[in-house]
Amino acid sequence: MKITLLGTGDAIGTPKIGCKCPACLDALRGGRSRRTRFSVLLESDDDEGRVLVDTSPDLRWQLLKKDISHVDGVVWTHAHYDHYAGFGDFHRVQSHVDVYALKNTMDYILNYLYFLNPVRHDVCAYESFEIAGMQFTMFLVNHPTTETSGVVVTNGRKKLVITSDTNLDIPEKSLELMKDADLLLADAIMPPGYNIPKHMNAEEAVALANRVGAKDLRLTHLAHLYPPHEIALKKWPLGHDMMEIVL
Ligand SMILES: [Zn+2]
Ligand SMILES: [Zn+2]
Ligand SMILES: [Zn+2]
What is the whole-number distance in angstroms between the Cα of residue 18 and the centre of ligand 2? Predict the structure, then answer.
């Protein structure tokens, strides 16, 4: 499967409006510190299908850049604005989109998007479902106080794990499911030294990757508080917008 990190920023995005820190200046100059909000595009091996994990408020620009006007499904990890709010723009391009999420997450998002009419698929944590030849399993993480799920995606040969937004205190049952990923995409909103109860910092995300035996790791959902991308990259395996990884 091909994975494209459409957006690797936190809810604020980089540059942060009005900020002149080194990362924001790099972003304003067009450097890789520029980060739109979170979504991930998954494309199946034979190009038979595409799935979006989360629909960033920046989704319109992300899909314009990828020249994509059709997906086979949208998976929502949780009901925070930066993970679903771009869906409204997209629904005018492709109507009756198949959307997948845990029930409470779905209720909240579809209440906000009450003027749209996607095809609703409520899913249960730890139960697999298929979209476009790829198997998905949602698992509970810990992102107080919002119901939030990470996602395991397999194509029968390779395994991708996306943590979504979470702190390090992930339920044991989920850690079991996350084991031996070929690629782990992990929330690492800030560099070490910062602690915010809803997210992991880079050090914690690396510790998680080691704990679950991930073969490869990319950090995402990144705030402007990192050094500029090329400098930060020497220390941490940061993703960047439009990065493509083939599993
Ligand atoms: Zn978020
Ligand atoms: Zn800044
Ligand atoms: Zn969140």
Answer: 8
User: Which residues neighbour 15 within 8 Å (Cβ) at sequence distance 6 or greater?
Assistant: 23, 24, 25, 27, 28, 33, 34, 224
Closest CA relative to residue 150, chosen from 73, 35, 40: 40
Task: Provide CB contacts within 8 A for 229, sequence distance 6+.
Answer: 23, 26, 31, 32, 33, 238, 240
> Which tokens is 9 given?
């920023």
Could you read off the pLDDT of 106-135 as tens digits, one per residue? Answer: 999 999 999 888 999 999 999 999 999 999
Secondary structure letter of residue 139 according to DSSP: E
CA of 143 to the centre of ligand 3 (A): 7
Q: Which of 240, 52, 64 is nearest to 134 (CA)?
A: 52
Indicate yes or no: pTM above 0.85.
yes
Between the CA of 47 and the centroid of ligand 3 the distance, in Å, is: 30
The reply to whether omega before 15 is within 30° of 0 (cis) is yes
Residue 140 CA to residue 150 CA, distance in Å, equals: 6
- 2-246: CATH homologous superfamily? Ribonuclease Z/Hydroxyacylglutathione hydrolase-like (3.60.15.10)
The torsion region of residue 199 among left (phi > 0), alpha (psi -120 to 50) and beta comes to beta
Q: Beta partners for 51?
A: 42, 73
Residue 43, number of CB atoms within 10 A of its CB = 22
| Domain segments of the chain as ranges | 2-246
* 195 C-alpha to ligand 2 centroid (Å): 18
Tens-place pLDDT, residues 153-198: 999 999 999 999 999 999 999 999 999 999 999 999 999 998 889 9
In 3D space, the residue among 168, 137, 15, 149 whose CA is nearest the CA of residue 77 turns out to be 149
